[in-house]
Design goal:
This protein is an alpha/beta fold and 300 residues long. It has one domain: TIM Barrel (Alpha-Beta Barrel), CATH 3.20.20. The chain has 11 helices and 10 strands. An 8-stranded mixed beta sheet has the order 5-4-3-2-1-7-8-9, with helices on both faces. A hairpin with a 2-residue loop joins strand 7 and strand 8. Helix 4 crosses helix 11. The chain is globular and about 55 Å long. The mean pLDDT is 91. The structure holds iron/sulfur cluster (SF4). Iron/sulfur cluster binds next to helix 8, helix 9 and helix 10.
Length: 300
């Protein structure tokens, strides 16, 4: 890791340990610094292309364990949403994920074709996030090979990632960049029950939240501050509220400048969102990674 990044990483970890993030967030310092460094850019865009997964992890922070009838998303809708976003802003790091993105290779290949042929100069890198359980088809390997700035990021879950060795060997052979992430544990975000608490406490949770600082999620044509919000609202597990997402396909965002403003308002949002009342991320509880559940989770 370069020295500057090491220092930033150390500073972020220290802020987390000392519980300084809520204070930093309230000052708006982080958002201002981010906007200066990345003007007109979404720093990290998580593009969900499927709810289907080859694993069923009990503690998935994207709530895939709650889907009893998961679906692959419509490639046309994903691409239409990306067209609107790229007209308005650049993206630094674009992550393609699910579920498991290699369960729907047709959608994946269509999205890669669009990114490669239409907006290659509008993003800095593409990461495909996979659990290493599936070896893609030759056609899909070729599509990845043809797409510049692409990296496959394997989450290594030991024996569960049964195809990681084979898939990564193909990447090596074909010259496709890849990383293998060896997380020792996951953070527990808690169940989806309503926390009966003072609004100040919910706000404090949001202010200190790592997820909402870092990523913006594109799911079914809408941008969200947090994947927990995106999926819990879609599944009807928690109520949403107006103004907590950006419907990028809405006609009022025909003007890219208006969409850009709306995205900035979302990213810089100070007030907590609905899902923060149904979250326990501030407890910093570690759980074993990729522990498998036998059936879709219930809401407790
Ligand atoms: S629900 Fe709120 S506090 Fe929990 S991860 Fe999402 S943004 Fe953060």
């Amino acid at each position: 890791m370069p020295k500057k990044n090491r220092l930033l990483h150390f500073a972020a970890s220290a802020a987390r340990t000392l519980h300084l993030w809520p204070v930093i967030a309230r000052t708006g310092m982080f958002n201002r610094a981010r906007r200066r460094k990345y003007p007109d850019t979404i720093v990290r865009l998580d593009v969900v292309i499927t709810e289907c997964c080859s694993l069923r992890c009990r503690d998935c922070s994207n709530l895939m364990q709650y889907y009893s009838k998961p679906e692959n998303l419509d490639a046309g809708e994903v691409i239409s949403s990306l067209i609107k976003i790229f007209e308005a802003m650049r993206v630094s790091q674009l992550k393609i994920l699910g579920g498991e993105p290699f369960v729907c290779q047709k959608v994946l290949m269509e999205v890669l074709t669009y990114l490669r042929e239409e907006v290659n100069d509008r993003f800095d890198e593409i990461n495909i996030i996979t659990n290493g359980t599936i070896v893609p088809s030759d056609e899909c390997i070729q599509a990845m090979k043809d797409t510049p700035k692409l990296k496959v990021v394997f989450s290594n879950y030991g024996e569960l990632s049964s195809k990681l060795k084979e898939f990564s060997a193909i990447c090596s052979r074909e010259g496709i960049a890849f990383d293998i992430i060896e997380d020792e544990f996951w953070w527990d975000f808690g169940d989806l029950s309503l926390r009966e608490e003072k609004p100040k406490k919910t706000q404090h949770r949001y202010d200190g939240c790592y997820s909402r600082r870092i990523c913006t999620t594109l799911y079914r044509g809408k941008l969200y501050v947090c994947p927990r919000q995106a999926h819990a609202v879609h599944l009807g597990l928690i109520p949403g509220s107006d103004g907590e997402d950006v419907d990028v396909l809405k006609s009022s965002y025909e003007d890219p400048a208006k969409l850009c403003d709306a995205i900035y308002s979302l990213i810089d949002r100070k007030e907590h969102i609905s899902s923060c009342r149904y979250c326990g991320c501030e407890k910093n509880i570690k759980v074993p990674r990729a522990l498998q559940a036998e059936r879709p989770s219930d809401v407790s």
